[in-house]
Amino acid sequence: MRLFFAALILLAGCTGTPSSVQPVSPFELESYLGQWHEIARLDHRFERGLSEVTAHYSMRDDGGVRVLNRGYHQSRGEWREAEGRAYFASDSATGKLKVSFFGPFFASYNIAKLEPDYSMALVVGHNLNYAWILARSPTPSADDCLRYQQKAAAIGVDTEALIWLSDCLTATQPN
Fold this sequence. Notes:
Blueprint: H1 29-32, E1 34-41, E2 50-59, E3 65-73, E4 78-88, E5 96-102, E6 105-114, E7 120-124, E8 131-135, H2 142-155, E9 163-164
Antiparallel strand pairs: 1-2, 1-8, 1-9, 2-3, 3-4, 4-5, 5-6, 6-7, 7-8
Subunit structure: Homodimer.
Domain Lipocalin/cytosolic fatty-acid binding: 28-165
Subcellular location: Cell outer membrane
């Protein structure tokens, strides 16, 4: 189970923010809690082969956030989970957190774009090689997906390399 997202260990000490990213503010943690579906991501070994990926955020007793990531590995026919913890990296009104899935090692969780109703988010790591588009629904609208893809491109994410877990952009892609 701990193998899932184990590569975040490599990001130890990587709690910065890319220069092209301004984490969202104001940010309300209570509104962000709950389940999110991964809509698109850049490829990394710790998620390779996974589909139906979700992240569930809930409060911890120590004031931090419990992070439970889950995905289905089709070729192995098994669900994988990783539990971590997150804390604000700066003030609690800014969507900049640090997350750990292994011991004292933390990685950046920068919310670069967020819908006012907290229905969709673009998250990047300490650099633009780590990026995720998340939504409350596993099937957001094509317009929403396109807006988030465009925002990712505008901040420098290689959107050609995004792996789409949702087919939300199928109607907008050229044949």
